[in-house]
UniProtKB/TrEMBL annotation:
Coiled coil: none annotated. Its cofactor is Mg(2+). Gene3D superfamilies: 1.20.80.30, ATP-grasp fold, B domain (3.30.470.20), Phosphoenolpyruvate-binding domains (3.20.20.60), Phosphohistidine domain (3.50.30.10), Pyruvate Phosphate Dikinase, domain 2 (1.10.189.10). It is an enzyme of class 2 (transferase). Keywords: Kinase, Magnesium, Metal-binding, Transferase. This is Pyruvate, phosphate dikinase. It comes from the Bacteria. Catalyzes the reversible phosphorylation of pyruvate and phosphate. Residues 392-474 form the PEP-utilising enzyme mobile domain. Residues 488-840 form the PEP-utilising enzyme C-terminal domain. Its EC number is 2.7.9.1.
């Protein structure tokens, strides 16, 4: 072997070596060599060299062995470009044979030498000769006796003597590892993790540091942080008389590293070695700019560093590690921001199923709202409320949810529905209140009358039985799965503050109630981008008044009932203004079809008839009359404002009166934003604007006080986007409601799409669920057109997005490029959006 052969190279500080040609392990070892750490002599084989070996073209083994001197003991480990892509198992102790065994026995004792030989025979048999591990089942535990038995078992199975030539041994190990990488299963596994089809494997051949032998000998791993929390704390294990990663499997015999009440430690056993390993690990952290796990061997008291691996970490630890590296001046803050995957923050914001726990999956659906919770299955909102009153966590199971279920949803720990997609009612509310939610679980048979669920594998779950909803992964699990608590710790807050200093697009929250607004403020949203006022009417006392309003025969009757709703709305808005402390609050005027507020079954009709003092038949008739074939495209949004203007008048008055109330107390005057939903024509805006202005004038006159407000339009019909040029001059802002806009652009019901969405995505009809990830081609084109035409006609118009896509990192990138001022999303998605927005500006 020539030292300058780029494909088979001794690792020196200057040898040409790259992650993309020799793999991450080889590159990392070179960095450790440059740091002058005690790394055993190592040769790296490039992707090309390994590829040729797999094809049967073996390198000159004598030349390959030459740098290791007489009778070396070696190990071979994989070195792929990305450690996540896996690779064949490492093989240790290559080079041991009868002769070497005899010499070793003299040097390190009979037992240790036999142990090393026995380990190699077994590893070679299993990984190279591909024998069944059962072949060694009866081999004695004692290595001296076991060795002879293992050699005989090998010969019996293969009809060959165990190879004695180190060149043959090494060649066979290299060939088998190279071929294992090219196998179909390995290829499919790594491709599933994002590896390209032609991903290469490098191999490193390293002189073995003997963890088995006289004096203090053993092996272990050390890292300076806890992988679950990122807290600074030396963790790892050490096992005397062991090799490789034995210490991690070492059970009770393995030592802790630092002094530990649970048992003896390496620090006590071998203080100098411990201090040296710690110093090396610290040096790696500083120079490799990463939290590393050190793989080490102590050979008769002498420390060897075999490898450094990026510390495995969950999301919480990833945040803590990135922040600590930046605070220690090792990486810049911008890099810390880039090192955390925004979506991973969900793990910190919600409880999660412990990833290490066994999962008994009953069924899958759409992961509509992240987090996990367990509870007893209930099938109605009333049962959910009853369970909450008893202090019992419950999972509310519905075919789909409707506004009537809101109180039950608040009472439940999690939601499971048969129907619906990412923007169905259950999904939107679930995300809004941080409730784990799986929707569209259509593989489950929902027998709600019989109060049971039949799972795809035939298992039945009845009311009262416990299940766990994993809204992060879209799974329904049997029983009560172990959960990890949410962890919004100091590192999280620090990272978020850095994100805010960096980003150039604001993040607001969609918040409907004071509780939502509190959340929004806690998550440091820069205001409320969408308050869906209809969500304020689902409490019992209000619902009855609302129903009276819907049943009012004349405009006067309706106005009289609205008078009673006015103080309630005024109090709601005043609360929101107070909570948001001068941040902008955008209130959307009433949007949904009125019949959503009416009971759907006869019992509900009877109850309502009692409350309104009307015959049941009247109620039933009116409910039927209000029914629509396609309510999402019917009498809702601004259409209500045009046909029943008293509702918007009441809301505008409540907003203005609350503005004056809140401004009196606060320092800066509140400037409310009023948004008109479902607009499709300029004239709609003119009509509503005239009335809102008139209400403002009336309130100013009555109170003898001035105030300002901003009126805007929600662009959520394709026509509003196309005609933005004529709408924008009338308003201060345009906010794109991409839920309805997606629904209408695709002609795809947001409440029914769940049924076929997975088939569509699987067959590549749509690259993703467009309710989840903004369709930048189609819906995005309407956004661009709306933004351009709106801005051309009114250069001051503020542009934003308030559909569910507002919390999605890819969609935020689109909105930023389109020049939007802010995105608005559910409170729990605000941190993800803040980080994603910051990453765009780094
Ligand atoms: C929208 O349509 O995008 C929107 C935000 O409004 P809603 O989801 O209430 O229809
Ligand atoms: Mg909408």
């Amino acid at each position: 072997m020539q030292q300058y052969d780029p494909d088979i190279t001794l690792i020196t500080p200057t040898a040409p070596m790259h992650t993309g040609t020799h793999g991450g392990r080889a590159k990392c070892l070179q960095r450790l060599v440059r740091l002058d750490l005690p790394v055993p002599r190592t040769i790296a084989l490039s992707f090309d060299a390994v590829h040729r070996i797999a094809a049967g073209e073996m390198p000159d083994m004598a030349a390959l062995l030459a740098p290791f001197g007489e009778m070396p003991l070696l190990c071979v480990r994989p070195s792929s470009e990305d450690p996540d892509w896996g690779g064949p198992n490492a093989v240790l102790n290559i080079g041991v044979n009868d002769a070497r065994h005899a010499v070793l026995a003299e040097k390190i004792g009979q037992r240790a030498a036999a142990d090393i030989y026995l380990r190699f025979v077994q590893a070679y048999a299993i990984h190279v000769a591909r024998l069944d591990p059962d072949v060694f089942e009866d081999v004695a535990q004692d290595p001296v006796q076991g060795l002879g038995e293992a050699l005989r078992a090998y010969e019996d199975e293969t009809d060959e003597e165990f190879p004695q030539d180190p060149g043959v041994q090494l060649g066979q190990v290299l060939r088998s590892m190279a071929r294992a990488w090219e196998g179909t299963t390995a290829r499919l596994l790594r491709q599933a993790k994002g590896a390209p089809a032609d991903a290469g494997l490098g191999l490193v051949v390293q002189e073995l540091a003997l963890g088995i032998g006289p004096g203090e000998s053993g092996s272990g791993v050390m890292q300076l942080v806890d992988s679950r929390t990122g807290a600074r704390q030396i963790t790892g294990r050490y096992l005397s008389q062991s090799q490789g990663r034995d210490a991690l499997r070492g059970g009770e015999d393995a030592l802790y590293l630092t002094r530990d009440p649970r048992g003896p430690s390496l620090e006590e056993l071998a203080p100098a070695a411990f201090a040296e390993i710690r110093a090396h690990t610290l040096l790696m952290r500083e120079t490799l700019r990463e939290e590393m796990q050190t793989e080490f061997t102590i050979e008769d008291g002498r420390v060897w560093i075999l490898d450094g691996i990026r510390v495995a970490r969950n999301a919480r630890a990833a945040v803590a590690i990135a922040v600590a590296l930046a605070e220690d001046g090792i990486i810049p803050r911008e890099e810390a921001l880039m090192r955390v995957e925004p979506r991973a923050l969900n793990e910190l914001l919600h409880r999660q199923v412990d990833p290490e726990a066994r999962r008994d999956v009953l069924a899958h659906g759409i992961a509509a709202s992240p987090g996990a919770a367990s509870g007893k299955v209930v099938f109605t909102a009333a049962e959910a409320q009853a369970a909450a009153a008893r202090g019992e966590p419950c999972v509310l199971v519905r075919r789909e949810t409707s506004p009537e279920d809101i109180r039950g949803m608040h009472a439940a720990s999690a939601i499971l529905t048969e129907r619906g997609g990412m923007t169905s009612h259950a999904a939107v509310i679930g995300r809004g209140i941080g409730l784990p939610c799986v929707v569209g679980a259509s593989d489950i048979r929902f027998q709600t009358r019989r109060k049971m669920l039949t799972m795809p594998d035939g298992r039945v779950v009845k009311a009262g039985e416990t299940i766990t909803i994993d809204g992060t992964n879209g799974a329904v699990l049997a029983g009560e799965a172990p959960l990890l608590e949410a962890a919004r710790d100091a590192a999280f807050q620090t990272l978020m503050n850095w994100a805010d200093d960096t980003r150039d697009i604001a993040v607001r929250a969609n918040a409907d109630t004071p509780a939502d607004a509190e959340l929004a403020r806690n998550f440091k949203a820069r205001g409320i981008g969408l308050c869906r006022t209809e969500h304020m009417f689902f409490e019992d006392d209000r619902l009855t008044v609302m129903r009276e309003m819907i049943f009012a025969d004349t405009s006067e009757d309706r106005a009289a009932v609205l008078e009673r709703l006015l103080p309630m709305q005024r109090a709601d808005f005043a609360d929101l203004f107070r909570i948001m402390q001068g941040q902008p609050v955008c209130i959307r005027l009433f949007d949904p079809p009125l019949h959503e507020f009416l009971p759907t079954d006869r019992a509900g009709h009877v109850q309502l008839a009692g409350a309104l003092d009307l015959p049941v038949s009247d109620v039933t008739r009116r409910v039927e009359a209000l029914g629509e074939y396609n309510p999402m495209l019917g009498m809702r949004g601004v259409r209500l404002g045009i046909t029943m203007p008293e509702i918007y008048d009441m809301q505008a008055r409540a907003i203005f009166e609350a503005t004056l109330e809140a401004s009196r107390e606060g320092e800066a005057p509140v400037v409310p934003e009023i948004m008109i939903p479902l607009v499709s024509a300029r004239r709609e805006v003119e009509i509503v604007k005239t009335r809102v202005d008139a209400v403002a004038a009336a309130v100013r006159g009555e109170r003898q006080r001035d105030f300002a407000y901003r009126l805007g339009v929600m662009v959520e019909t394709p026509r509003a986007a196309l005609r933005a040029g004529e709408i924008a001059p009338l308003v201060s802002f345009l906010s794109f409601g991409t839920n309805d806009l997606t629904q209408m652009t695709y002609g795809l019901s947001r409440d029914d799409a769940g049924r076929f969405m997975s088939a569509y995505v699987q067959q590549g009809v749509y690259p993703e669920d467009p309710f989840h990830v903004l369709d930048t081609d189609g819906v995005g084109e309407l956004l661009r057109i709306g933004a351009e035409r709106g801005r051309a006609a009114n250069p001051d118009v503020v542009l934003s997005i308030c559909g569910e896509h507002g919390g999605n990192p890819e969609s935020i990138s689109f909105c930023r490029e389109a020049g939007f001022t802010y995105v608005s999303c559910s409170p729990f998605r605000v941190p993800v959006a803040r980080l994603a927005a910051a990453q765009l500006s780094v």
